[in-house]
Amino acid sequence: MSLNTSAPRRRLALITEPSRRSRFEELPPVPSDFSPAPLQDSQGRTYRYVRFSLTDHCDMACIYCMPEQGEREHGLRPELLTEEEIVRLVRVMKPLGVRRVRLTGGEPLLRKALPDLIRGLRALDLDDIFLTTNASRLETLAHPLHEAGLRGANISIDSLDPQRFAQITRGASLDTVMRGIDKALEAGLLVKTNTVVLRGQNEDELEAIIHWAHARNITPRFIELMPLGEGATLPSQTFVPHAEMQRTLAHVLTPGNGQAREGAGPARYWSSQRDSAKKVGFITSVSEDFCGTCNRFRLTAVGEIRACLASRRALSLRDLMRQGADDRTLAWALHWSLLGKADGHAFSDPTEGEHTQVGMSLIGG
Ligand code: SAM
Ligand code: SF4
């Protein structure tokens, strides 16, 4: 089966007008007895991990993520959070328990001041600063980013076949991405890969991706297709459940215990039968969600806090900051946004549907 994609060509995609995607709520006044404390929601989940989308622009247009749209100029648009605003927000979050930051997008490498931003974050003495990237510009940026304080990168790679890769990304060069990965390893970044598994496109490549990655000391991760944004427009049979991926890989992997996680991410890790120190991650957001242990929230490229990837409920911290809000008000806004977070994402509820209007690149995948 082949998905309905257009001829490969280079492009710079923009997902949509951000404001149409958000369901804004008004922040109640700061209660007089409010004092900043570790971020928790009404279910008792604690938040130590924030993901910032740095831009909703991208130089690829993956068929499960971006709509096919005309080219636009990239670069800093005035409505995006500035580097200074991002650093200020993280400074406010740190006493509330946030210790890990992931920079994503869209394509975060399009942000020209990325090394400066990472330097600014490093000065806050966090546990980790990571990037999620398509690696298109990593060949030149890997060393400067590592020197600035970046610890590692999760790199998207959906196929090892140049033609398939170009089809899925709508025109990107696998060779360029491979050179970016080599530089990331050379610079000393911890590298994991992300592969969204798509029936008819790459579900026959999982074993090859594992061998390719393990030979380079990379941990590969396989992601279930989520019905978000463009992912919601693909034929339902494109979805491959993690149980099917694991059945296919039963002769090369030893199962994990189902719950064990490495690091703070959502992946569950299985081990290679050849070498148990080498792992393979599965991100099972759809068929077996991990909402009950969620420890993360997101800031969109335009500074809206989204407690959940799959919800349009939003509050603009950018607007609060630009209206002169003090740090205590920002801390209250973070607490209030997380308190109202839903139990789970309702991907499997066809009547809910809100997540299908959520674009990954604006919010930060
Ligand atoms: N451009 C960067 C990249 O591709 O790594 C960062 C942003 S991208 C939105 C972050 C991650 O989200 C990527 O690993 C991508 O494969 C994943 N992603 C995007 N849309 C998805 C969908 N509908 N279902 C599952 N994963 C998706
Ligand atoms: Fe761009 Fe990443 Fe989305 Fe692909 S998955 S279109 S590389 S933002």
List the helices and strands and how they pair.
Layout: E1 13-14, E2 23-24, E3 49-53, E4 57-58, H1 83-93, E5 100-104, H2 114-122, E6 128-133, H3 138-148, E7 152-156, H4 162-169, H5 174-187, E8 190-197, H6 206-214, E9 219-224, H7 242-248, E10 253-254, E11 268-272, E12 279-283, E13 296-299, E14 304-306, E15 313-316, H8 317-322, H9 327-339, H10 360-363
Parallel strand pairs: 2-15, 3-5, 3-13, 5-6, 6-7, 7-8, 8-9, 9-12
Antiparallel strand pairs: 1-4, 10-11, 11-12, 13-14, 14-15
Helix pairs in contact: 1-2, 2-3, 3-5
Bound molecules: S-adenosylmethionine (SAM) and iron/sulfur cluster (SF4).
Describe this structure in words.
By secondary structure, this protein is of the alpha/beta class. The protein has one domain: TIM Barrel (Alpha-Beta Barrel). Helix content is 25%, strand content 18%. It contains ten helices and 15 strands. The chain has helices spanning 83-93, 114-122, 138-148, 162-169, 174-187, 206-214, 242-248, 317-322, 327-339, 360-363; strands spanning 13-14, 23-24, 49-53, 57-58, 100-104, 128-133, 152-156, 190-197, 219-224, 253-254, 268-272, 279-283, 296-299, 304-306, 313-316. The strands form two sheets. The chain has a 13-stranded mixed sheet. It has a two-stranded antiparallel ribbon with strand order 1-4. β13 and β14 (304-306) form a beta hairpin. The longest helix has 14 residues, at 174-187. The radius of gyration is 20 Å and the shape is globular. Residues 1-20 and 70-76 have low confidence and may be disordered. Bound molecules: S-adenosylmethionine and iron/sulfur cluster (SF4). S-adenosylmethionine binds at residues 58, 64-65, 104-105, 107, 132-134, 156, 194, 196, 223, 225-226, 228, 231, 360-361, 365. Iron/sulfur cluster is lined by residues 58, 60-62, 65-66, 105-107, 134, 156, 361.
